[in-house]
Design a protein that fits this description.
binds manganese (II) ion, 367 residues, alpha/beta, binds nicotinamide-adenine-dinucleotide, Isopropylmalate Dehydrogenase, magnesium ion binding, binds 3-isopropylmalic acid, 10-stranded mixed β-sheet, two-stranded antiparallel ribbon, 19% strand
Length: 367
């Protein structure tokens, strides 16, 4: 293919700012390639609610655009403005609808510590140097989608409930993704659950063992309770290679893992299904506390775009260039506020300027 169509979902908060930095970087890249990308913007989250009179945070028109694209780049959704909306009219519901409707059951969240950012982490250099973890998070099941759910009145008081539930087939397919991912990495998987207490985790563990024994006999599989895993990630993160876990545990542990890298603003992700385009999205949210101030770190989204080039467009070489350009910017000492340390001798830049620095680095790489 020499022309790809990419649906852009800028969403809310810092979303539009990091999206324009990311599109700038991709355009800088493709100005040097024989192939091109055509971008088309679509609505999701609060932006979609505003456009549909609070009806739908992921309208069918957006779903259609996503389905026919070669790939999808999503920034982030959510904000104070919609926080008191009923559940069905919340930005988050649109994001979950997108993941579910598009069958994106696997979310790959790499937490790789870059030497340039060792000082940006709150942890000691000797603890984080060399850390390279891949969190494989199940994305379309668990307590996020389980029924029954709701808030009812029982015996004169309100009771809120959700259901943590996994079908065997759902566990099997995410375990397979983890197996495939781990075979290309260190060959080591830690399955994180809470099988000492939860039946759903008991099944998770049994099925994971079965998949690895039958399909990935070379994988070194271990098991860890999620509470211990949260602690071990901070105590000795180098023990982890690939982590496979359910939707909610993966959500929490990946945010935790971002602090090994130095900032949530550095963590990319790929959401993929068994067929069709994937969605490439930073792990962070819409950062309403800094939205509109040109303070956001666009690198998580730019690194997500690199994952898109590699996984969906089959452009691994150009993905490498994008990642190298990000590292060059860090080498040159450009820092957004979230990764700036007092006395680090680096230069504080805004979102826009960081985008321009990445573009300049791409030019150097492609020259
Ligand atoms: P958040 O990730 O938006 O922000 C947490 C903290 O990290 C904030 O201090 C923020 O300023 C900072 N931060 C996040 N991304 C950054 C970046 N790129 N550069 C610099 N700093 C960054 O999480 P939150 O505050 O708990 O949630 C805010 C909203 O985002 C909520 O509506 C939530 O539902 C939504 N959310 C959306 C997604 C998503 O779109 N995938 C993910 C998480 C949260
Ligand atoms: C994420 C977010 C979402 C999640 C929310 C906004 C629905 O936290 O992408 O990590 O919990 O999956
Ligand atoms: Mn999250």
């Amino acid at each position: 293919k020499d022309s790809y169509s990419v649906t852009l979902l800028p969403g809310d908060g810092i979303g539009p700012e990091i999206t324009s930095a990311t599109v700038g970087a991709l355009n800088a890249l493709t100005s040097h390639t024989s192939w091109s990308i055509n971008f088309k913007e679509s609505l999701i989250g609060g932006a979609a609610l505003d456009a549909t009179d609070n009806k739908d945070a992921f309208p069918d028109s957006s779903l259609e655009e996503c389905r026919k694209a070669d790939s999808i780049l999503l920034a982030c959704i959510g904000g104070y403005k919609w926080d008191n909306n009923p559940r069905e009219a919340r930005p988050e519901t649109g994001l979950l609808k997108m993941r579910s409707e598009m069958g994106l059951f696997a979310n790959l969240r790499p937490a790789k510590v870059l030497p340039q950012l060792i000082g940006a982490s709150t942890l000691k250099p000797e603890v984080i140097t060399g850390v390279d973890i891949m969190v494989v998070r199940e994305l379309t099941g668990d307590v996020y989608f389980g029924t029954p759910k709701g808030i009812d009145v029982v015996d004169g008081e309100r009771v809120g409930y959700n259901n943590m539930i996994y079908k065997e087939s759902e566990i099997r397919r995410i375990a397979r993704v983890a197996g495939e991912v781990a075979m290309k990495r260190g060959g080591k998987i830690c399955s994180v659950e809470k099988s000492n207490v939860l039946d759903v985790s008991q099944l998770w563990k049994e099925v994971t063992i079965d998949v690895m024994e039958k399909e990935f006999p070379k994988i070194d599989l271990s098991h860890m309770y999620v509470d211990n895993a949260a602690m071990q990630l901070i105590r000795y993160p180098k023990q982890f290679d690939t982590i496979v876990t359910g939707n909610i545990f993966g959500d929490i542990l990946s945010d935790e893992a971002s602090m090994l890298v130095g900032s949530l603003g550095m963590l990319p992700s790929a959401s993929i299904g068994s067929s069709g385009p994937g969605v490439f999205e930073p792990c962070h949210g819409s950062a309403p506390d800094i939205a509109g101030e040109d303070k956001a770190n666009p690198l998580a989204m730019i690194l997500s775009a690199a994952m898109m080039l590699r996984y969906d467009l089959g452009r691994g070489e150009e993905a490498d260039v994008l990642e190298r350009a990000v590292e060059m910017c860090l080498d040159e000492g450009w820092r957004t506020g979230d990764i700036k340390q007092e006395g680090d001798g680096c230069t504080l830049v805004g979102c826009k300027e960081m985008g321009k620095k990445v573009e300049a680095a791409i030019e150097k790489c492609m020259a």
